[in-house]
Write a structure and sequence with these properties.
heterodimer; A: mainly alpha; ABC transporter involved in vitamin B12 uptake, BtuC; two-stranded antiparallel ribbon; B: mainly alpha; 17 helices
Chain lengths: 290, 401
């Protein structure tokens, strides 16, 4: 019996690592700009398609695509912030939500138009290699996705702690007027934050492509899970988001064992979400608060 | 654009709407002009089924868009106007953004259908049962959310989670057909009581009446104390609370009423399509489509959702017909795995896109419209139009004086 649970725990941690990268992107955008990005999951979906088509059309390995995609998606995020999101920064939450909902609707339908609604998946020759830990087996591609995500989260955290730009970003998250007063270019910070957030979520998508299907509809589930994590970890709190993500990953995979049907695993996550929102809106580890 | 304090332009041509006190003559004329316009449209809509196959309609409408195809488009318009109006009560008037109304819609459809299939209860009664059940769900969701002070984006997220939970439960509940949904029993010789009809005309009039009733209800709310309370909550909830508005109770009443209407819409949908399935009904796309009409037309106004539906559905249907007609018949997966060279593949792919790609063009347009309205006319089309009229009049006054 313990083997089954060990297996669930490990695979939960692995997927939780990927969730962490998704959620860190969301929490960074929220922290700096106070905007909730409902189109977040759609960028994950486009990351997955990038990896899928690079592989089937040009034979580029997804892990190579991940490296190439980092600057590309950063630029996409930068451009979207500069054009679409910029006018609604500081407006009411309803306006912001509706705008990003519109973006999400547009991107999903665009993916359907461009790539069709079919579910696609990559077939890589190394996809079946597994790692044996005690009685559990974990696919190497999942371990790689975990490692990439955790590495990027750490890199982002170091960037925010150590570099001048990172410190300026944190200053924006703390206090908008104060940052302006000390000469921080808020517009540029917003573009960097959105660019980084989008790059994070796209890389998370690419890292999942070796073991996860691609379809225009994959986004919303990840958006919602990322919200769950961000609320759990405390809004704008990056280490909190990573911890929240690992918890959600484990709840989900253990939920799949406990629930009557494995596909009900998400139910556990949503129930956890509502409970946290109601009883601990500041998150488990503190943050801006709901 | 300054937030207009009026609860919307002239009320619907509903039986209960009185002219009220409108003050200065220019406003009175403007309001009565709008009322005449709405009455004329209503008269045309009432007559449409009688002439839908006539030569005159055939001459005006594009090929194929006559008779039952034309009526179908109008049923969709009325239905979406009704659903959007339902959303408008909580999302527009009370200003609490719900992105989970597909849940109430789905629950309503399932409740009346189960009553019909298992208990033999007429869907007309089932519709009332559906409204009762969904209003309980709505009130429960409101009670929990508003008791704990969830606002803005957090309320929105709870509604999304609620819809997802509803979908998952329906998807795994064998009694309600799980992922297969429920196919309503076909009646070869349906009676009125069975809420099934051979032609489109009865559905057309039922949807029209439902839309008119929703307008009348919302027009009444807009003029009632309850409506002013909701308006105050939307403007500034803390200030409303401070002057003694029972904010929590009002919000719960608003979401219960909104959910009840959405549930009745679910019953209509079930009877019209004769087939209900969770993955078509209780999904985020439907929740967004429900709020789209109200947001585009003007959330928190009486006629906004109706105008929104009259803009959206024809635009969407036209896009579908024009751009998604043929298709090359080649699936993208076959194209990718074919032996063509890269250049040939690319040309074949362009062909694929030109013939409608994988579909979804109408929804692309919906997304663009939503963003354009949010960025360009944040109150919606209707408030933007009345603002435009005021600006023009002011300019005329300045030029004259």
């Amino acid at each position: 019996m313990s083997d089954v649970y060990l297996q669930a725990l490990l695979s939960g941690l692995m997927i939780g690592g990927v969730y962490a990268l998704v959620a860190v992107g969301l929490t960074l955008i929220f922290g700096v700009m106070d905007i909730i990005n409902f189109a977040h999951g759609e960028f994950l979906m486009f990351g997955m398609y990038a990896a899928f088509f690079a592989s089937v059309l040009f034979g580029i390995d997804p892990y190579v695509t991940a490296v190439l995609a980092l600057p590309a998606f950063f630029a996409v995020g930068w451009a979207i912030q500069g054009t679409l999101i910029k006018p609604v920064v500081g407006k009411s939450h309803a306006i912001q939500i509706l705008l990003t909902l519109g973006l999400s609707l547009l991107l999903q339908a665009l993916a359907q138009y461009l790539f069709s609604a079919d579910f696609q998946s990559l077939k890589l020759d190394y996809a079946d290699a597994t790692l044996q830990i005690a009685g559990a087996r974990i696919g190497w591609t999942r371990v790689a996705a975990f490692a990439i995500s955790m590495g990027l989260c750490l890199a982002l955290w170091l960037f925010l702690q150590r570099t001048d730009t990172g410190k300026a970003l944190r200053a924006c998250a703390e206090e908008h007027e104060g940052s302006l007063a000390v000469g921080i270019d808020l517009g540029r910070m917003y573009k960097i934050a959105f660019g980084l957030g989008i790059a994070c979520v796209a890389i998370a998508g690419i890292a999942m492509t070796p073991f996860f299907y691609v379809a225009p509809v994959v986004g919303p589930k990840f958006t919602l899970v990322a919200f769950v994590i961000v609320v759990l970890g405390g809004l704008g709190n990056i280490p909190g988001a990573v911890a929240g993500a690992l918890i959600v990953g484990v709840v989900e995979s253990v939920g799949a064992l406990v629930m009557p049907s494995p596909s009900l695993k998400d139910l556990a996550v949503y129930v956890l979400f509502i409970l946290v929102l109601l009883f601990r809106p500041q998150g488990l580890f503190g943050g801006k608060g709901a | 654009m300054a937030p207009s304090p009026s609860p919307g332009p002239s009320p619907a041509p509903s039986p209960g709407a009185s002219s009220g006190t409108l003050g200065a003559p220019p406003r009175f004329f403007a309001a009565s002009r709008a009322r005449i316009f709405y009455l004329v449209v209503l008269a045309l809509l009432l007559l449409l089924p009688l002439v839908s196959e006539s030569a005159a309609v055939e001459a005006v409408m594009p090929v194929g868009l006559t008779g039952s195809a034309l009526l179908h488009v109008f049923v969709l318009i009325f239905f979406f106007a009704f659903m959007s109006q339902a959303w408008n009560i909580i999302g527009g008037f009370a200003g609490q953004l719900s992105i989970g109304h597909a849940a109430f819609f789905g629950i309503g459809a399932y409740v009346s259908t189960i009553c019909y299939v298992h208990l033999g209860l007429s869907p007309w009664i089932g519709m009332l049962v559906a409204a009762a059940v969904t209003s309980v769900f709505g009130a429960g969701l409101g009670l929990v959310s508003f008791h704990y002070g969830l606002k803005g984006p957090f309320f929105a997220l709870v509604t999304v989670a609620f819809a997802e939970i509803t979908r998952l439960v329906l998807l795994h509940w064998e009694f309600v057909g799980a992922a297969n949904g429920i196919l309503l029993p076909f009646e070869p010789d349906p009676t009125f009581w069975q809420f099934q009809f051979k032609g489109k005309e009865p559905y057309y009039y039922i949807a029209l009446v439902m839309m008119l009733c929703s307008i009348a209800l919302v027009a009444w709310i807009a003029r009632s104390r309850f409506g002013y309370y909701l308006h105050a909550i939307r403007q500034d909830e803390d200030a409303a609370e401070a002057v003694g508005v029972p904010t929590k109770r009002c919000k719960i009443q608003a979401i219960a009423l909104s959910a009840a209407l959405a549930g009745m819409g679910g019953t209509f949908y079930a009877q019209y399509t004769q087939y209900i399935v969770p993955d078509d009904m209780v999904v985020g796309r439907v929740s967004v489509e429900i709020l789209l009409g109200a947001v585009i037309g003007g959330a928190g106004t009486v006629m906004g959702p109706i105008i929104g539906a009259f803009i959206l559905i024809p635009v969407g249907e036209a896009t579908r017909v024009i751009f998604e007609g043929g298709g090359t018949g080649v699936s993208l997966s076959t194209l990718i795995s074919s032996d063509l060279g890269f250049g040939e593949k690319f040309v074949a792919y362009l062909d694929y896109l030109a013939s409608g790609g994988g579909g979804g063009l109408a929804v692309i347009l919906y997304g663009v419209l939503l963003m354009a309205v949010v960025l360009g006319m944040p109150g919606g089309v209707l408030p933007w139009l009345s603002g435009l009229r005021q600006r023009l009049r002011r300019r005329a006054d300045q030029a004259g004086g």
